Amino acid sequence: MKYEKLSKIFYKDELNYKEEYAKRFNGYGTYRTNLFIKPVIKGKYAGDSVELFIVNTDGLMKLQEEILLNSFQIREMIKSMPKFAVKFYFEKLLINELQSTNEIEGVRSTKQELSEILSLINENRESKNKRFTGLMKTYKYIGQINDFEKIEDFRKLYDDIVSDEVDSKSQPDGELFRKDVVSITDGSKITHVGVYPESNIKDYLNRLLIFLNTSDTPDLYKYMLAHYYYEYIHPFYDGNGRTGRLLVCSYVAKKLDEFTAVSLSYTINQDKQKYYKALEELSHPMNKGEATFYCQSMLEILKDGQESLIEDLSLGLAKVERVRKYVGNLESLSRDGMSILGSLLMIHVFVGADRVFTNAEIQKNVGLSRHKVDKILLELEKEKIVKKIKDRPTTYDLEEAFINKVFFE
């Protein structure tokens, strides 16, 4: 028998609707959360509070299993990458993720801008413009974020990643959070009203912490539902989407892997309609707080991101073998020359043509002196393998004709 949404059953068979809800809510395979919401329709609260619950369907269990196996495969593939390339590959995903989380919220940023901020952070240099610096730092060390234990942790997350981006009129005006009402729109109509006043926000966030830290609900279900509940509460006037997605990513990074975690917003951005529909439908009065289908949608998004990662890594690892064979057959190159050229080609494979490396970065990656690196790059330049694109700092890039020879001939 097909498992259907309660809202659909209501319109198809109203007589059996209450019985079906009771069966699901009280079932042996149901996880009850002690998280309550007032259902919302057309941006207005409708009806009495309901408790969120998840029925552990075959579809959900299968998704959870597939995601765990995918994470194992991703970790194994990362181990097979050249060690020096892992950091740069993660940083590429990081920039894509931050660009995507900004785009979802309609916040303007460019990959170039984010890349420059990341470079400054890597060099322990302060940026004159603090824009996105906190966001970048927090995501860069996402695996080191501690579990949330007190409501002040939510405010700290806000201060760390978005407070510098939010205008003065939209800053929190309560003790920790907002004290007034806030409406959420889809651009044309109100879709939700956040919890208020601040005393209620604090109460709801405390419930969320108890759920995260004590519930027996399977972790992946728990993290996805925590994201919904945080968005439902909407503790700030602005920045809820970015802080809410980072909240779930910080837990996913520890449960699965950091590469899966920093691909979530990027994948959501590819199918925003599915994401917003999942959030909105869970709040619908006729669904009576059932979060099964919301969790299914969110886990499908997570799995889609993993599958894209696996496909990308598979192609990259296949190209690595081609690079090793090609470079190994270049008799004109010394061992150190092969090391430098191999490094440049493998970075190109995993990071792409937009990322170029200074001589200093190359020295660090291959463990050779500046004099040695400069000498080898000059030789490679004479052979039209690389070209100098910048003097200060000295920066080389691979010649396009050479790249084509390696990968397409």
From TrEMBL:
Gene3D superfamilies: Fido-like domain. It comes from the Bacteria. Residues 149-304 form the Fido domain. Transmembrane segments: none annotated. Pfam families: Fic. This is Fic family protein. It comes from Metabacillus fastidiosus.
